[in-house]
């Protein structure tokens, strides 16, 4: 489990690609402290397991499924990546509940300044947007952010200067792909609620009221 509060920005040291998988070696410093082989580290919001440790980096396997569902395949040597160690049981929730299981990939459609804030507009598929709500939580490349606006083809977030400085957002450009993880609570609620008919499984106000929400 993660919180979406990035601890540091690392860089890709090497990528060893197989036919349908890869091994990433990530140069880092802070996240290496007290980390052991087998621990979890979120790389751009994707939970990866440490397979090797080096004085200045760690290596992790990336499965076929992960490459298909995320933007990790776009990384190259030298790419900046957001890093966060798994949250300790006695830690503080600075962001929201993040599983490190990416739902899909979005594309940055626009970046604009608004006084000290910077707005990022992300285009995404409808399968992701159905779980995105205004003022709800979204994880972009492992960064816990609040949704400021939702549109038919995407959503926007407004970021503070500190977030941009402390993450790889300051190196993102229009057209870049980003990993997206929606709030896990909404997905569980949808899964657990009974469908209206065998062919329909949609949430409505009336259904929620009948179920006590």
**SS elements, strand count:** 12
Largest sheet: 6 strands, antiparallel, barrel
Uncertain runs: none
Q: Strands of the largest sheet, in order across it?
A: 1-2-5-4-3-6
Sum up the overall morphology in one term: globular
Strand content: 35-45%
Q: Can you write the helix and strand succession as a string? A: EEEEEHEEEHEEEHEHH
Query: Structural class of the helices, strands and pairings?
Result: mainly beta
Helix content: 10-25%
Function: Catalyzes the dismutation of two molecules of 6,7-dimethyl-8-ribityllumazine, resulting in the formation of riboflavin and 5-amino-6-(D-ribitylamino)uracil.
Domain Lumazine-binding: 1-96, 97-193
EC number: 2.5.1.9
Keywords: Repeat, Riboflavin biosynthesis, Transferase
Secondary structure elements and pairings:
Elements: E1 8-17, E2 22-27, E3 40-43, E4 46-54, E5 57-62, H1 64-69, E6 80-85, E7 104-114, E8 117-123, H2 126-129, E9 137-140, E10 143-151, E11 154-159, H3 161-166, E12 177-182, H4 184-192, H5 205-210
Antiparallel strand pairs: 1-2, 1-6, 2-5, 3-4, 3-6, 4-5, 7-8, 7-12, 8-11, 9-10, 9-12, 10-11
